[in-house]
TrEMBL record:
<protein>
    <submittedName>
        <fullName>Anti-anti-sigma regulatory factor (Antagonist of anti-sigma factor)</fullName>
    </submittedName>
</protein>
<dbReference type="GO" id="GO:0006355">
    <property type="term" value="P:regulation of DNA-templated transcription"/>
</dbReference>
<keyword id="KW-0597">Phosphoprotein</keyword>
<feature type="domain" description="PAC">
    <location>
        <begin position="262"/>
        <end position="314"/>
    </location>
</feature>
<dbReference type="InterPro" id="IPR035965">
    <property type="entry name" value="PAS-like_dom_sf"/>
</dbReference>
<dbReference type="InterPro" id="IPR002645">
    <property type="entry name" value="STAS_dom"/>
</dbReference>
<feature type="domain" description="STAS">
    <location>
        <begin position="331"/>
        <end position="442"/>
    </location>
</feature>
<dbReference type="InterPro" id="IPR013767">
    <property type="entry name" value="PAS_fold"/>
</dbReference>
<dbReference type="InterPro" id="IPR000700">
    <property type="entry name" value="PAS-assoc_C"/>
</dbReference>
<dbReference type="InterPro" id="IPR036513">
    <property type="entry name" value="STAS_dom_sf"/>
</dbReference>
<dbReference type="Pfam" id="PF01740">
    <property type="entry name" value="STAS"/>
</dbReference>
<dbReference type="InterPro" id="IPR029016">
    <property type="entry name" value="GAF-like_dom_sf"/>
</dbReference>
<dbReference type="Pfam" id="PF00989">
    <property type="entry name" value="PAS"/>
</dbReference>
<dbReference type="InterPro" id="IPR051932">
    <property type="entry name" value="Bact_StressResp_Reg"/>
</dbReference>
<dbReference type="InterPro" id="IPR000014">
    <property type="entry name" value="PAS"/>
</dbReference>
């Protein structure tokens, strides 16, 4: 069958001109490959194809269009677009029945009702082919110059908008990926057991405070916070002091200023009036070129840890003091005063073990120094009970056996009352108020 030119459109056809105008208006609104083809509907209706396919750069179908009320001709794989070399330029088959390029697929094409076809590459520039548009016709036809020009124009328009759409899709996917990353980052940050604080380099503007950070600080992102007033906005105090920490001492400000990591500690006065202690570590954030664009701070609440450490320190100091006191109490020196007089200051509590120690030291000292008088000074004994009374009496009796006169000094009123209440018999034992009185007594006795 000879090709027909009945359906050709004149270059000056107002129908074609109007169709092209509508096409480009519709292309600007298209949101998918099918909508791109649908936008070209006015031109397709002017050319009257039985079906139109939008192909990707590998020849695969992206979308398909047909006139209202008709199913598109489905030549599908029957016509190998690659064999027609459409990448090198538009391919126009006026009559499938006679064109040798269709020899291999003629039967399938005719069975599908395709009598003529046109394949025009979609170029976004001279060399880059991004796909093709294919029009199938149920009748053979001559493709006039005007139709060919119109198809090339529309193909270029399709290419432009197809590339733009692909670029837009890539941008949207990139934005979705960024949003996923942002959501992931925020989720991670909000589940960290430490506070995180992010500030912009240059301005010092607070960009982010995570959930734990808000809990600790009692405040979140403050739009008025800057490097020169962080300490006022977030009530940063020196540790254990009511002095506001100067801005230049804040680790965040130091990092924003120097670009180097910084660490420190401070107290935070929270809005409710309570106070916490935090440890802070700041570090710079840099872009691919090494320029610092922000600084991040991680901080931990160490209030409870500091309290425990303070209690531990206080306990240790108390233990050391008690041990020192115990050592002092256990150490009961015998002090020689000359001329056969010795004195033993007794400090601390007395028990059976220490009483035995006192007697042992006292006897050994008196024998070694040939003492006549031994003064037992109990000024440092805090209280009296049967153990104290027994210890004093044993010590006095022991030195008497050596011929040494015992003198008891430093008995306070409360100790005296306790000894009386215990019915302690101190007969034969010289008792004086002070150690000095005892020394005078011992010296005076020697002089007579």
């Amino acid at each position: 069958m000879a090709p027909s030119s009945v359906d050709s459109v004149s270059p000056t056809s107002p129908v074609l001109e109007a169709a092209l105008a509508q096409v480009f208006t519709g292309l600007t609104r298209a949101g998918s490959e099918l909508e791109l083809l649908t936008a070209c509907g006015p031109l397709f209706r002017a050319l009257a194809p039985s079906g139109v396919e939008l192909l990707d750069d590998g020849g695969g179908r992206l979308a398909r269009w047909a006139p209202e009320g008709r199913a598109p001709l489905d030549a599908g794989p029957a016509l190998d677009a690659q064999e027609l070399r459409w990448r090198q330029g538009p391919v126009y088959v006026a009559d499938v029945a006679t064109d040798p390029r269709c020899d291999a697929a003629r039967g399938a094409l005719q069975a599908a009702g395709v009598a003529a076809t046109a394949i025009v590459p979609l170029r976004c520039d001279v060399l880059d082919v991004v796909g093709a548009v294919r029009l199938d016709f149920a009748e053979p036809r001559q493709f006039g110059a005007d139709e060919r020009d119109a198809l090339v124009v529309i193909a270029n328009g399709l290419a432009t908008f197809l590339v733009a759409r692909r670029h837009l899709l890539r941008q949207r996917e990139a934005l979705r990926a960024l949003e996923r990353e942002r959501t992931t980052l925020h989720t991670i940050l909000d589940h960290l057991p430490v506070g995180v604080f992010l500030a912009e380099a240059g301005t010092g503007k607070v960009l982010l405070v995570n959930h734990r950070g808000v809990e600790m600080l009692g405040r979140g992102v403050d739009p008025n916070a800057r490097t020169d007033n962080y300490q006022e906005v977030y009530q940063c105090m020196r540790v254990g002091s009511d002095e506001v920490m100067p801005a230049e001492d804040l680790p965040l400000v130091q990092t924003l200023t120097s670009g180097e990591p910084s660490q420190g500690a401070m107290d935070i006065l929270r809005p409710g009036g309570d106070r916490i202690s935090i440890e802070v570590s700041a570090a710079p954030l840099r872009d691919g070129d090494g320029a610092m664009f922000a600084a991040v701070v991680a901080f931990s609440d160490v209030t409870e840890r500091n309290r425990v450490e303070a209690e531990r320190t206080a306990y240790r100091d108390e233990l050391i003091r008690a041990q020192a006191q115990a050592l002092a109490e256990r150490s009961t020196p015998l002090v020689p005063l000359g001329d056969g007089v010795v004195a033993m200051p007794i400090v601390g509590t007395l028990d059976r073990e220490r009483a035995d120690q006192i007697v042992e030291v006292l006897l050994a000292g008196c024998a070694a120094r040939k003492a006549r008088v031994a003064i037992l000074d109990v000024t440092g004994v805090p209280h009296a009970d049967t153990a104290v009374a027994g210890a004093l009496l044993r010590a006095a009796a022991a030195v008497r056996l050596l011929g040494v006169e015992p003198i008891l000094t430093g008995i306070r009123p409360d100790v005296a009352r306790a000894l009386v209440a215990l019915h302690v018999d101190l007969k034969g034992l010289v008792t004086l108020s002070t150690l000095q009185d005892g020394i005078f007594h011992a010296t005076g006795q020697r002089r007579h």
